[in-house]
UniProtKB/TrEMBL annotation:
It comes from the Bacteria. One of its GO terms (molecular function) is ligase activity. The chain crosses the membrane at residues 29-46, 53-71, 83-101, 113-130, 167-185, 191-222, 234-252, 347-367, 379-405. The lineage of its organism: Bacteria, Bacillati, Bacillota, Bacilli, Bacillales. This is O-antigen ligase domain-containing protein. The keyword Ligase applies. Keywords: Ligase, Membrane, Transmembrane, Transmembrane helix. The keyword Nucleotide-binding does not apply.
Length: 433
């Protein structure tokens, strides 16, 4: 049952903003079967690894600290929401670690994972191709009706697949694309080839500055942490920089693409900061988080309470952003809805040095676990860069990749088999002695 729930979550991993249950902006359908699977795991003998205790301690500290702040500040609702996101995050991580451990030894499960991932990306890729056709050739908006069945927000002329935002589609293309590339290398070529081609095509034609920057940052991090293929990655880094700097502007002009997002490829950051709402939010909101950390360096402002000083700091240092409707509404009407839009900024602002050291300690353990395989190392680098525009602890793609790194999903099959053979050999040696 645990495996079935996990496979179902993979099959719906891209459904992150269904319009039928609007309880949150980011509401991935996959987190509910993951939570159920985690509950069932309590009935087994599965336990966290020693280094995972840092994550458990972090969660306990974060929830406890948040509740204390809520008692003094009088907003228990924000504290409860924060605690719920941590519960979902821990649940997704536990299940991912467990499945990774099982998949190391079970080739049938690996094939089931490949099939579930193909199902999970099949429809989104097909809708993404329709959006591409509509955006660059037909230009009638016919794809918006189809997209609206799966997403509360629909963007005209953008490739968002079935996600709530084009940038979230980029997250799925990068994270699921990496997993499909690994499974392709593992022998599932017939299943993975067509979806992989679709991922590459949509990633290029999405013209998502966020997706490009995440990929570029991930490659840069990989070069810094890798012990293999650094030369190849440096070449890839240079190629992506050339594509973003030269190829993308050429494609935009050739395809006659216009829209608010095309200005980002002029690389005039000072202009974008004052003219592009999305760019302003992605730069300034994390900056405010680090300002809050500077004012509360030890304990932070408390989990879920980034918004407490948000409005004052924005009006004091970035008041020109009030011309953007989204920013104005957050400051004047819904300040409690303001978030840092960046997990690292959220971590330091809300948890302070104590919480940050605990979480980063856990991430260091994940980094050490990734040393055995280049795919695991790149998955780690991707996790670090993915949260540049994501601040939720219930981020499915993040926990899936981190869990599979810690669980050994990316480990070499021959090495795993040899380790399994060694166990009975050790027992036999003991009997002989």
């Amino acid at each position: 049952m645990i495996v079935a729930l996990f496979l179902f979550s993979l099959a719906v991993i891209t459904y992150d903003s269904l319009p039928y249950i609007p309880f949150s902006v980011y509401r991935p359908l996959a987190m509910f079967p993951m939570l159920a699977a985690s509950a069932l795991l309590l009935l087994t003998d599965f336990r966290f690894k020693p280094a995972d205790m840092l994550l458990t301690i972090f969660a306990a500290y974060s929830v406890g600290h948040s509740l204390l702040v809520s008692i003094t500040g009088g907003d228990t609702g924000s504290s409860v929401k924060h605690a719920i996101t941590l519960v979902f995050g821990l649940s997704m991580y536990r299940v991912s670690v467990y499945i990774a451990g099982e998949a190391k030894r079970d080739p049938v499960l690996r094939k089931q994972i490949a099939i579930a991932l193909t199902i999970g990306m099949g429809l989104p890729l097909a809708i993404g191709l329709l959006q591409t056709l509509d955006a660059y050739l037909v230009r009638s908006g016919f794809s918006m009706t189809i997209t609206g069945l799966f997403s509360e927000k629909v963007y005209k002329g953008r490739i968002q697949m079935l996600s709530g935002e084009p940038s979230w589609a980029g997250i799925h293309l990068l994270s699921c694309g990496l997993l499909m590339l690994f499974l392709y290398k593992e022998g599932f070529k017939k299943l993975m080839l067509v979806p992989l081609i679709g991922c590459v095509l949509l990633l290029v034609l999405s013209f998502s500055a966020y997706a490009y920057s995440v990929l570029f940052t991930a490659l840069l991090i990989y070069v810094l942490i890798a012990n293999k293929y650094r030369g190849r990655m440096l070449l890839a880094l240079a190629a992506i920089a050339a594509i973003i700097g030269v190829g993308v502007p050429f494609l935009l002009e050739t395809l006659k693409v216009s829209g608010y997002f095309t200005d980002r490829f002029q690389f005039d950051f000072a202009h974008l900061l004052k003219a592009d709402n999305s760019f302003f939010v992605r730069v300034v909101f994390p900056a405010i988080g680090f300002m809050e950390f500077g004012q509360h360096p030890i304990f932070g402002v408390g989990g879920g309470f980034y918004y407490k000083e948000f409005a004052d700091l924005l009006l004091k240092h970035f008041d020109y952003g009030m011309k953007f409707t989204e920013v104005k509404l957050l400051v004047e009407q819904n300040p409690d809805m303001a978030t840092s839009r960046n997990l690292w900024a959220k971590l330091f602002a809300e948890e302070g040095l104590i919480g940050a050291f605990l979480f980063i300690g856990f991430m260091v353990a994940a980094l050490r676990s990734s040393r055995s395989n280049p795919y695991a190392q790149f998955a780690f680098a991707l996790c670090v860069s993915l949260v540049m525009n994501f601040d939720s602890y219930s981020f499915v793609n993040f926990w899936l990749l981190i869990g599979w790194i810690r669980g050994g999903f990316f480990e070499d099959r021959l090495a795993v088999q040899a380790a399994e053979w060694d166990k009975p050999n050790e027992k036999e040696l003991k009997r002989t002695a």
